[in-house]
Design a protein that fits this description.
single chain; 432 residues; alpha+beta; Heat Shock Protein 90; 2 domains; five-stranded mixed sheet; 7 strands; 67% helix; 11% strand; elongated
């Protein structure tokens, strides 16, 4: 096989999608610098070269502008061509651009004085260093590109009767090999990082699938337990009624945790359509759902719910928001204390608040972060509930606010289409 054909074939080995994206993204920024470089170089050398440098500038400007246009097109419409076609376009015109800049060193430099030759040398070295970084995602293109610029420059200074005719070529070769080493090290590091990222993605996918399988396995026995407990409760003696209620409370907690896990593993892959919901009715239903848990925990709910308040939201997400707030109030409040839930409408906005008596929340902002609970001593808390509530609020443009005051913790949620800034101000006014 012809070696040149073999090298050309290897140059266009299909790259990963990430590498092609990286090449175009980095070139988009560096090409603007190349355009500025061309203009400034032409301005500096015009007195020495005249129309020749103007023609050179026109050629490299056309190539650079075409590459910039291709980068922008790839950014906004990557499906226009196949990944291989985008790669071929990039490599071809990148090397043509390198050849255009290189011509400044092996064609036009002979008509310059030694002072201007050193200026061209410094300019091309700076351009080469920048190209090494912007092309480092594909070490083959980067090495060929700097070879096109540096090696002809070495030959030009070697053939000239220059005071630094030996020093400059040797220095250029040292620079050339150091750039190759840097490119290869950069590529090796990028490959290692990519492999580590991919391993983490695989582990995350496996972990997510494991949780999904576990949640699926829990569903059937949990349904059977709930059904049979209801039958036992209907036929049980009054003496064991208290124990039945405690079992029911635990089952409801388990079921609530199950629903949370189901949502967490599916919220980023499933579509949750919006519905017109009677928020007043939905809230009352969720309060009723917790009645067994309230009985065993010796808590009392007092609620003030304005009737027939409508909301456009997904019912599953609304249920998770309400359930987690009631559940938190039960877990973190003082026993035999009251839990106050209010729902009202003010200025076209709906305010839903949950107030319970308990230990003060020291860092209200952090309470919505993942794996954070405001009471670490509560072993039943995974620190995922309020994190999920935060994601639901962010997704549905719901403003949330937490306040600890006089031994009471209050969580307020505002359902509104108005700006977050105005909503936060109104929430602060509401909380006094």
């Amino acid at each position: 096989m012809n070696p040149s054909k073999h090298a050309s074939k290897n140059l266009f080995i299909p790259l990963s999608k990430e590498t092609v994206h990286s090449l175009y993204a980095l070139s988009e920024k560096s090409l603007v610098t190349a355009i500025v470089f061309s203009v400034l170089t032409t301005f500096a050398l015009y007195s020495q070269l005249g129309s020749e440098v103007l023609l050179w500038c026109l050629g490299v400007m056309l190539l650079t502008l075409f590459r910039l246009f291709a980068a922008l097109r790839f950014k906004h419409n990557p499906s226009r061509y196949t990944l291989k076609t985008w790669q071929v376009l990039f490599v071809t015109f990148a090397l043509l651009t390198g050849l255009g800049f290189s011509s400044l060193g092996f064609l036009l430099m002979y008509g310059l004085s030694h002072y201007y030759q050193l200026f061209v040398l410094a300019a091309l070295l700076g351009l080469t260093a920048g190209a090494s970084i912007s092309l480092s995602s594909d070490f083959r293109v980067a090495i060929v590109y700097i070879s096109i610029i540096i090696l002809p420059l070495v030959l030009s200074f070697t053939l000239q009767d220059h005071a630094l005719g030996i020093v400059i070529p040797i220095t250029l070769l040292l620079f050339y090999f150091s750039q190759i080493v840097m490119i290869l090290k950069s590529y090796a590091q990028e490959t290692t990082i990519h492999a580590l990222v991919q391993d983490n993605k695989d582990l995350l996918a496996e972990n997510k699938q494991f949780i999904a399988d576990m949640v699926h396995q829990i569903r059937t026995p949990l349904t059977v337990i709930i059904a049979n407990t209801s039958l036992i409760e209907m036929k049980s003696d009054a003496k064991i009624d208290k124990h039945i209620k405690q079992i029911n409370a635990s089952i409801f907690m388990l079921n609530n945790a199950y629903e949370d896990l189901s949502y967490l593993i599916s919220h980023d892959s499933m579509h949750y359509p919006l519905k017109n919901i009677n928020l007043s009715q939905q809230l009352q239903e969720r309060i009723d759902f917790f009645k067994e848990m309230l009985a065993s925990g010796q808590h009392h709910i007092h609620h003030a719910i304005d009737p027939n308040l409508m909301l456009c939201m997904n019912d599953t997400e609304l249920e998770r928001l309400i359930d987690n707030n009631i559940s938190n109030a039960l877990k973190h409040s003082v026993k035999q204390s009251d839990i106050n839930i209010t729902l009202s409408k003010q200025d076209e906005m709906l305010y839903l608040s949950f107030c319970s008596k308990g230990a003060a929340i020291k860092e209200p902002v952090k309470i919505f972060e993942k794996n954070v609970t405001h009471n670490p001593s509560v072993k039943r808390s995974l620190g995922l509930g309020l994190y999920m509530v935060k994601n639901i609020c962010d997704k549905n443009n719901i403003t949330y606010h937490v306040e600890s005051k006089e031994g009471h913790n209050t969580f307020v949620f505002c359902f509104s289409k108005k700006s977050s800034l105005n909503t936060v101000s109104l929430l602060n006014d509401t909380l006094g």
